[in-house]
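> run fold Putative aminoacyltransferase, E1 ubiquitin-activating enzyme
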Amino acid sequence: MSSSTESYFIYIEESQNTIPQSFSPHECFLIKLHHFHSTSFNHYDFLIPGNILCDYDEFESVDQDSLSYTFLRNTFLSVDLPHEVLEETLLLMGEYARYMNTVNFEGYRILEMDVFVDTTSNISDDENAIASLSKMLEKLKVKDVDTSFCSREQCSICLEEFCDGSEVPHIIRTKCMHFFHEHCVARWLKQCSFHNRLYSCPVCRSQIQ
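> ok
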């Protein structure tokens, strides 16, 4: 994704638990933030209460009186990121935290998240990658979607039904026969691009292209 001032990529993944679960009696996230910029690299560790991070969404991001807004901005003051990059990073962290909570079947009280932010990417390369991704998604888009399909199928990433009573969404079907909202799988594929990986299905890891 790019901004008017510089180009940047954000990639988030769950990391293996490396600290004792008895370290904290409360549910929280260990955020391991890795920032690549020009010739420098900075690493930061933050321990964030689970409810603070999971509550942070687009509504909280504009409510300057909210606890999550105040806590997260004070916590990340030491991170040298442009405002819009930090805002996008926090929103993605909140979204990913909610996902990690839903799949925390082991009941871990501390969940670890690796956050990679690269603000050194070449803008023209980014634009070429986005154009290539858009063409591929267009080829994978399900044509002539009807409401009966939407009501019985759900996105394999967000697990929400495609039919929510509004207009029919753009649905992507991979050759391994997994279905996704276009915006859900696009975010995953951008992460593949960030790490120079082949585009793969987020469910079974089969190669998409």
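The CA atoms of residues 68 and 74 lie 10 Å apart.
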